[in-house]
Automatic annotation (TrEMBL):
The lineage of its organism: Bacteria, Pseudomonadati, Bacteroidota, Flavobacteriia, Flavobacteriales. SUPFAM superfamilies: P-loop containing nucleoside triphosphate hydrolases. Keywords: ATP-binding, Cytoplasm, Magnesium, Metal-binding, Nucleotide-binding, tRNA processing. It comes from the Bacteria. One of its GO terms (biological process) is tRNA threonylcarbamoyladenosine modification. This is tRNA threonylcarbamoyladenosine biosynthesis protein TsaE. One of its GO terms (molecular function) is ATP binding. It comes from Capnocytophaga catalasegens. InterPro entries: P-loop_NTPase (IPR027417), T6A_TsaE (IPR003442).
Length: 140
């Protein structure tokens, strides 16, 4: 487990710092509404050298970002009513594709997730400061 305290203005540097610490391409982003989960995904996508415009997939469930060598899937399961919706959209194919998967509101699909995931938990310290905790898979 690794904890980092940062100012919101430092998010791009934080993404560069945590990328080498992440041990799974399946990343669960935990934090309440407005904590900066999508903002962190934007910074991580940029750190992975992808220039696509990153936005919250709240209504589409998944957004895809790519360059010539990488594909990233960004999920937001805040609005799903049950896990069957995730199965219907093919969540298992995405998760087992070997590509990066950034998943917001993963607690809504908890039983569908493999064990070998990295969790990133974002908690507030004040209006401009966050604590980020990285929890990697036990067997990594």
């Amino acid at each position: 487990m690794r904890k980092i305290i940062y100012q919101l203005a430092e998010i791009e540097q934080v993404a560069q710092q945590i990328l080498p610490l992440i041990q799974s391409k399946i990343i669960l982003l935990q934090g309440s509404m407005g904590m900066g989960k999508t903002t962190l995904v934007k910074a991580l996508v940029k750190a992975l050298k992808i220039d696509d415009v990153v936005s919250s997939p709240t209504f589409s469930l998944v957004n895809e970002y790519r360059n010539s060598t990488s594909v990233i899937f960004h999920f937001d399961f805040y609005r799903i009513k049950n896990e069957q919706e995730a199965l219907d959209m093919g969540i298992e194919e995405y998760i087992y594709s070997g590509n990066w998967c950034f998943i917001e509101w993963s607690e809504n699909i908890a039983s569908l997730l493999p064990e070998n995931v990295t969790e990133i938990i974002i908690t507030p310290i004040d209006s401009y400061t966050r604590s980020l905790t990285i929890i990697n898979p036990v067997n990594s």
